Amino acid sequence: MALPWMESRRVWGDTKLDAKQSSEAPTRMAILFSGCGYHRHEWWAKSEGADMELGKVLTPLNEFRDKMVFIRGLYNAEALKGNIHSSQTGNLLSGAPLASGGRIQSGTSVDQLVAQHIGHRTKLPSLVLGCEKANPSVHKDYSMLYSSHISWSSPTTPTPLEVYPALAFDEMFKNKAQAGDQSVLDAVLSDARDLRRNISRLDQQKLDEYLNSVREVEQRIESAGKRGELQGWRPT
After folding, report:
1. In which domain, by residue range, is 126 found?
2. Which of 50, 105, 110, 211 is 20 to 30 A (C-alpha) from 1?
């Protein structure tokens, strides 16, 4: 189980330069997809930096204005050729033409190109999450796999997605030897106590917050499991 960076713990590397590099968090990239889109009249940004004005939908991001860049004018010509949802999704992150006739041919998506370059710095090179399982059927001459996947490891290989929260959590925090119902914190509790005695008060607070957040996620997943909500999205 990885820990957050702590000021009172030495990092790997003998030189000051190496230590500085080791203490920096790895570069991460996240891409979110909303199939139903957003209210376009409230999804906007004006100006930049601390002077940036945000539309109503984006106001929760106000405190991050000086760290954000909004890009306008992106256009994916290939997404308009099939005129159905699947043909407008499968090339969202590549802009590649999609094969019809039930065949699978898209393009390697930008998230996977990034993962090929920086994915070795984290436990998982890439984590693709979804709310429902992939659909292998064909609709209006296009494979529905295009609708199920915006991430593609190669032009013919959609990146496997995880729809079960518990399995995604295990993938990130647990090792293969741990039982599925065993708390990841139980396995490291003794080490965490030893560590806590040897770090600064600020780091103790950071450690407690981190462990509490992991426990909270575990409890939410356990609660969802009891309600039968771990099998992915279900129609109502």
Report:
1. 86-163
2. 110
